[in-house]
Amino acid sequence: MFSRTSLRHIWLIALRDFQQTLRTKSFWLTxxxxxxxxxxxxxxxxxxxxxxxxxxxxxLDKSGTVAPTLEQAIRKDDPTIQITPPxxxxxxxxxxxxxxxxxxxxxxxxxxxxxxxxxxxxxxATFPQDPHVQIWVSHxxxxxxxxxxxxxxxxxxxxxxxxxxxxxxTAIQINGAAPSIGLHLPEHGLSADMLRNIxxxxxxxxxxxxxxxxxxxxxxxxxxERSGKLLEALLSSVSVDHIMLGKLLAALMSLCxxxxxxxxxxxxxxxxxxxxxxxEPAPILASLLTPRVLIGAPFFFLTGATLMAMIAFAVGxxxxxxxxxxxxxxxxxxxLILPVETLLQLTVAGVATQSISQLRxxxxxxxxxxxxxxxxxxxxxxxxxxxxxxxxxxxxxxxxNRLFRHSILDYSAAPxxxxxxxxxxxxxxxxxx
Amino acid sequence: MTVxxxxxxxxxxxxxxxxxxxxxxxxxxxxxxxxxxNGAGKTTSLxxxxxxxxxxxxxxxxxxEPAQKEHHANIGFLPEERGLYRNMTALETLxxxxxxxxxxxxxxxxxxxxxxxxxxxxxxxxxxxSDFSKGMAQKVQIGTALIHQPKLLILDEPFSxxxxxxxxxxxxxxxxxxxxxxxxxxxxxxxxHAERLSDRILILARGETRFHGTVQEALHQISNTITLTTRTxxxxxxxxxxxxxxxxxxxxxxxxxxxxxxxxxxxxVLLHCTQNAIPLKGFEQPKPSLHDAFIRIAGDAASPxxxxx
Lengths: 433, 309
Prior knowledge:
The complex is a heterodimer. Chain A is mainly alpha-helical. In chain A, 67% of the residues lie in helices and 4% in strands. Chain A contains 17 helices and four strands. The longest helix of chain A has 36 residues, at 192-227. Chain B contains ten helices and 14 strands. Chain B has helices at 42-49, 90-100, 105-118, 134-146, 164-179, 191-197, 215-220, 266-275, 290-298, 304-308; strands at residues 4-13, 16-26, 31-36, 57-62, 65-66, 75-78, 152-156, 183-188, 200-205, 208-213, 225-230, 240-245, 254-260, 280-284. In chain B, strand 12 (240-245) and strand 13 form a beta hairpin.
């Protein structure tokens, strides 16, 4: 198909473009930052959001009957909670006077002077006849509310049954009656669907991010040659096909380097930090080593990269500035990223399989969504969609090649989508330049 | 063996005929000037020779064979629109273009260093092109066309935008390449260079060939104009097609611009005047320039932009 000289030309063009990409700071920042980001988030964020100040609970029990039981229940649920004796001013106050007295504890302005984090529980003097218990909380309440409610309800019911004439033991026995429920969770804490899809979805996400970056670099290389008036000099040595294939190869080389680095970093992070975070690496790694992933991933990786490269070629060959090119590419990237990003999250969560199943047929999204579903989608769908991608590439590559040939030295062409439409129609109608 | 042979080549873009029935050939060591104003069809013709665009009709042969991409290893090309990779050094740029012309890495490096030395750029060889002055970048661009010592050197408006030093450098390189056996084809609308360098020229106007021959032959086309200062109207002299008075009478003497019929020489007119005692105070045969010849040959058919050029 290609002579040795042609292959040499393609390689030289690819190598130059690849070396140029390697010389950019943005490439190395991308290579390093993407794996570093989850590592930083994983190690730094918990420290940033973790508040070391212990929670406190103040119990104002006017009835004098439930405070010990409540203290016991709260301590049992969360041993770190401190039960603080109520200040004298609060103990002496009537229930309707409490709210203004608690302001220094609970209002954001005052809390600097009286740092307080926790719960203030006020139980009326005639509890349980008066069941109106009030709780003030300094932050979003946790499970302690359930504990308080259950403990007080238990107390009320036991007292009620005792007042009704039942022996105390019987009352306690009746109130404590509950079924014994055996709860069986998945072996690794994740559903079978999640386990099957988490690895391939990570691949799809990496492909999505890496293709976005490589598309940008490809676009920059194209615009540099077009705006720098280099194309005519190149075309005196090589053909349009050589330039296209060389640039495609360079984009794939950058993509492979990014992808390879990220996968290696991802696996290293998973094996080193996974167990500490309660994530078992073995089943996730196993999900990447299934025959479907081993065969399907390279295929959808190649077709996805080719598809994005063709879009970059169509845009880049008609733009004289990077800004103009990025302006045209931006809506395409948004159309790609937003649905794929959302659907990938849903895939991991194991929901919305119907919508994913339908959207997998749209060629722009097929490689990314199929990559995430390699272990769970019906085999026939994967095969047919693989065929669909081959057909799309078989139509798109010669068409873009023709567009590229027509537009490569046409500096007078109308810019923007209008010009693109005219050039595409011209390319469809005219085989040769 | 001819280096380049173009037969009946035509190209149309939409309704505009860019090149019509182009015919010419080049031999080794020959310098061929391809002349025409803006939009005359020069760049289209050069792009067809380089297979960047394809002719609608006609044939192009390179080195005695139908033109193929493989022949491009023996062609050096300097386009009208010039640029370089800004992030590459001068040495890397020359090596890259040399390698695209099938030179080995070692050979490309040796020749690149030789060119940089010849162009007085050795000290800047590892500097990025983005740090170069315009004149230095122009030298590197010229180097990219010469690095593989091509058998056919095609230069599209090579002198446009060059500073005088680089114009001289390029003229020297063109002459040098021709002396070493390369055929040189260059397009230009600056006639002084064409007149100085070309063995043969071809004048294009609106895609059509208006003249094809040597510079002397082109000059001969306008060498049939003389200026006479006489007391009588020279229109009646034999071999004269037109006589136009240039100055008012001064004591009976007037200056006339006289156009001779084809084949008539100025010497014959002078002889006729002397033999027939026609009083003459002045007789001049202005030395024509290629610029004048170009205006005369292409001017009537050229578009406004071509005439301006």
